[in-house]
Specification:
Strand content: 15-25%
Enzyme class: transferase
CATH superfamily of the largest domain: Glycerate kinase, domain 2
Number of domains: 2
GO molecular function: glycerate kinase activity
Organism: Amycolatopsis carbonis
Helix content: 25-40%
Keywords: Kinase, Transferase
Low-confidence stretches: none
Family: Belongs to the glycerate kinase type-1 family.
């Protein structure tokens, strides 16, 4: 039997692979009698390509446009005919020059370039993770990079970003080839309205109230031209409307991000030989209970009859809540170091110590 270590990243501190490595080191420091299998996971947001690479996919570099048009090197993951494309790699908030938001002009064009590059590399199936977007352009940039022509009433290409959407009159998709896309998405927001892409996520990308109004009007016009029926679909508002464009123009299928990624990474095969699963993320809180990676891992492990322990930078859930969810135990770095800033700075050694404690606790209980 094995211990399967399948964590998400500790955002701002460690990648998922680094979390898994630190936990494994702590477990093995206590006992080397039991194999430890590391399987870092992701839910479709930043870190998705890294998780795929850790599971055996090949990391492929591509020169693409960042959200403001500046050329950057981004990556997708490839194994056989399956590619994992992470929107955040090309069009994410961390790709904004100097971290300065560009809520009206940021574009998803680079994401389309990544998809095109993956297809050129031989991928016939694209898994697109749509978390962490810097743009609210309704996916117009992505479609343009794939060959679409987004035009105003005079036949001129509209400006990039959400600011150009209110002038869209026609969308020519004749040059867009068919592509098999699965969206790894954990939000169910529609494109428009108070629960839509502009209202909910625009402020997180630096949009002022007046910017939100501009973006909402643009998305409404964009939807009226590209596909009104898809605008209300759950997840259409993902990544500033990239979900909408993928559904309306590319025929994409949407699946919960963690479920899709666990299938892709081979979790079901790995958990068969496990007696214990260890998962986790930086902050275990109420949001974690709504489809985030650790709970996705927990549910998959419970389906296989394997108990699951969580490790976290901090745990904001009362014991009654995490027990009700199904976790056997939760261990947090703040159990060892009460200062959150030190937890972030020293996450790896603290996590190793935490794993050592976890190993001793479970050995004593066995």
């Amino acid at each position: 039997m094995t211990v399967l270590v399948a964590p998400d990243k500790f955002k701002g501190s460690l990648t998922a692979a680094q979390v898994a490595s630190a936990v494994a080191a702590g477990l093995l420091a206590v006992s080397r009698d039991e194999p430890v299998v590391e399987l870092p996971v992701a839910d479709g947001g930043d870190g998705t390509v890294a998780a795929a690479v850790a599971a055996g996919f090949r990391r492929v570099p591509v020169r693409v446009s960042g959200p403001t048009g500046r050329r950057i090197t981004a990556f997708f993951a490839l194994r056989g005919e399956v590619a994992v494309v992470e929107l955040a790699e090309a069009s994410g908030l961390h790709r904004l020059p100097g971290g300065l938001p560009a809520p009206l002009t940021a574009s998803s064009y680079g994401t389309g370039e990544l998809i095109a590059a993956a297809r050129a590399a031989g991928a016939s199936r694209i898994v697109l993770g749509v978390g962490g977007s810097a743009c609210t352009d309704g996916g117009a940039g992505m479609l343009t990079a794939l060959g679409a022509r987004v035009l105003d009433s005079s036949g001129t290409a509209v400006p990039s970003g959400g600011i150009g959407l209110d002038s869209v009159s026609t969308v020519d998709l004749s040059r867009v080839s068919a592509v098999d896309i699965e969206l790894a998405c954990d939000v169910d927001n529609p494109l428009l309205g108070p629960s839509g892409a502009a209202a909910v996520y625009g402020p997180q990308k630096g949009a002022s109230p007046s910017d939100v109004a501009v973006l909402e009007a643009g998305l409404r016009q964009w939807a009226s031209v590209l596909g009104p029926s898809s605008a209300s679909a759950p997840g259409a508002g993902a990544a500033g409307g990239v979900g909408f464009a993928a559904l309306a123009a590319l025929g994409a299928r949407m699946r919960p991000g963690i479920s899709l990624l666990l299938d892709l990474l081979g979790f079901s095969a790995a958990v068969r030989d496990a007696r214990l699963v260890i998962t986790g993320e930086g902050s275990l809180d109420t949001q974690s209970l709504h489809g985030k990676a650790p709970v996705g891992v927990l549910r998959a492990a419970m389906g296989a009859g394997v108990p699951t322990v969580a490790v976290a930078g901090r745990c904001l859930l009362p014991p009654a809540d995490w027990r009700a969810a199904g976790f056997t135990a939760v261990h947090a770095l703040t159990d060892l170091e009460p200062d959150p800033s030190r937890c972030m700075t020293n996450a790896a050694p603290l996590l190793r110590r935490l794993a050592e404690r976890l190993a001793r606790d479970h050995a004593a209980a066995a």
